[in-house]
Specification:
Distance between the termini: 37 Å
CATH superfamily: Winged helix-like DNA-binding domain superfamily/Winged helix DNA-binding domain
Order of helices and strands: HHEHEEHH
Number of helices: 5
Strand order of the largest sheet: 1-3-2
Strand content: 5-15%
Number of strands: 3
Radius of gyration: 13 Å
Structural class: alpha+beta
């Protein structure tokens, strides 16, 4: 399985990160991945009610913004949060987002 491209830590952009996190579905995905320590796309139950193309779009936005890392493990892709990279570029941002109460 081919490893997807991820932005270099030095090219992470605050507007792209904030845009990715501005969508409630993507924010829930990030929080769930963080709580579980890593998930496959199909293991995230909150995406089961949407078309695969929509779920794929959400993961692409999160990956291209530098929030998640997708790494192959067997026949699956495991999604993890790039916490160290995000903390390096934007200290405290991810902690504030992950610890914020859910509004829904």
């Amino acid at each position: 399985m081919r490893r997807p491209m991820h932005p270099d830590v030095n090219s992470l952009s605050l507007p792209r990160v904030l845009h990715a996190l501005s969508d409630p579905v993507r924010l829930k995905v990030v929080k769930q991945i963080w709580r579980t320590g890593g998930q496959t796309c199909t293991a995230l139950n909150l995406l089961n009610d949407m078309p695969k193309s929509t779920a794929s779009h959400h993961f692409r936005v999160l990956r291209e913004s530098g929030i998640i890392n997708m790494s192959p493990q067997g026949t699956h892709m495991i999604n993890t949060i790039r916490k160290d990279d995000l903390d390096h570029c934007f200290p405290g941002l991810l902690d504030a987002i992950l610890n914020a109460p859910d509004t829904e």
